[in-house]
Design brief:
The chain is mainly alpha-helical. Among the domains are: 129 residues; 44 residues. The chain is built from nine helices and three strands, in the order αβββαααααααα. The longest helix is centred in the middle third of the chain and has 35 residues.
C-alpha cells in the first residue's frame, strides 16, 4: 500500500512537472531597448501557438520563455548579463543614430540658407558638401558589423539618405562654381524621388526597435505635383530676390520702385 501511494505521488509529480514545463514554453518575456535608454518589457502567453518554445524575436530585442527564466532563477544555466550588454549596445546605436539625424538636419538647414542668399562664396558650398561627406563617412564607420534585422535596416536606410544628401550637395557645389543655379532643382529631382522609400524603411525599422507605431508612409509625389512645387519654389525665389533688391536699393519714389521691379518681371 505504501509503495502504491509512493508510486501514485511520483506519477502525479511527474505529470505536474511535465505540465509546468509545457506551460512554461508558452510564456514569453520580451525586452526591447528604448531610445531614451530604458527597456520596455512585455509578457505574453502564446495561446495560439501550436507548439511551445517556438517563438523568436528580432534583434536588438531579447525573449525568454518562462521555463528558461525559472531555470536561471534557481541557478541552472543562468542567463547572466548578455541580454543587458546587447541592450546597452542597441541603446548606444540608437543614440548614435539620433545624433546623426540631428547633424543631418542641421546641415540641411545650412544648405537651405546658402541657396536662399545670393552672392555667397563658392567656398561656403564646398565646406557644406565636405561636411555632408564627413557625416556620411562617420555613419558608415559607426554601423555595427553584427547588426541584423531591424537594426541593420535602420543603418542601411540612414546611410542611404546621407549619401543622397551628399550627392545633392555636390550638385550645388558644381552650380556655385558655374555661377548658374537654374538647373539645380532638376538635377536634384532624381535623388529626391529615392528619399520617400528610404524614409519609410528607416521609420518602420526604428519603430519596430522602439516598440511604437510607425508614422504614415511618405508617398512619392506625382509629376504634376512636383511641377507645381517647382513653380511655387521659383516664384518664392523671385519674391525673395525682389525683397532683397528693395532693401538694398532703398527706392525713394514710386518711379524708383518701378525701376527696381522691372528687372524681375
Amino acid at each position: 500500500m505504501i509503495f502504491r501511494s509512493a508510486g501514485l505521488l511520483l506519477l502525479m509529480g511527474t505529470v505536474g512537472i511535465a505540465a509546468l514545463l509545457l506551460n512554461g514554453g508558452y510564456v514569453y518575456k520580451t525586452s526591447c531597448p528604448l531610445a531614451s535608454g530604458g527597456t520596455q518589457t512585455t509578457w505574453t502567453y502564446g495561446i495560439d501557438d501550436i507548439l511551445p518554445y517556438i517563438r523568436h524575436t528580432s534583434e536588438p530585442c531579447t525573449a525568454h520563455t518562462g521555463t528558461r527564466l525559472v531555470l536561471s532563477a534557481i541557478g541552472i544555466a543562468p542567463l547572466g548579463n548578455h541580454g543587458a550588454e546587447a541592450r546597452a549596445d542597441a541603446r548606444s546605436g540608437l543614440a548614435k543614430i539620433t545624433a546623426d539625424q540631428k547633424e543631418l538636419q542641421a546641415l540641411d538647414g545650412r544648405m537651405e540658407a546658402f541657396r536662399r542668399e545670393e552672392g555667397r562664396p563658392v567656398s561656403d558650398a564646398e565646406a557644406l558638401a565636405d561636411d555632408y561627406h564627413k557625416l556620411l563617412d562617420k555613419a558608415r564607420g559607426q554601423q555595427p558589423s553584427s547588426a541584423k534585422g531591424d537594426e541593420a535596416e535602420v543603418w542601411r536606410s540612414l546611410i542611404g539618405l546621407m549619401a543622397l544628401h551628399a550627392q545633392a550637395a555636390d550638385i550645388v557645389v558644381r552650380a556655385a562654381r558655374r555661377g548658374d543655379f537654374s538647373h539645380v532643382d532638376a538635377d536634384i529631382a532624381p535623388l529626391n524621388d529615392k528619399i520617400p522609400a528610404l524614409n519609410n524603411s528607416f521609420n518602420h525599422a526604428l519603430a519596430s526597435i522602439r516598440g511604437v507605431k510607425a508614422p504614415p508612409d511618405q508617398v512619392k509625389a506625382s509629376p504634376a505635383v512636383r511641377a507645381s512645387v517647382r513653380r511655387l519654389s521659383g516664384l518664392k525665389d523671385r519674391m525673395d530676390a525682389i525683397d532683397r533688391r528693395i532693401v538694398n536699393t532703398q527706392p525713394q519714389s514710386l518711379a524708383e520702385l518701378r525701376q527696381a521691379l522691372t528687372t524681375w518681371r
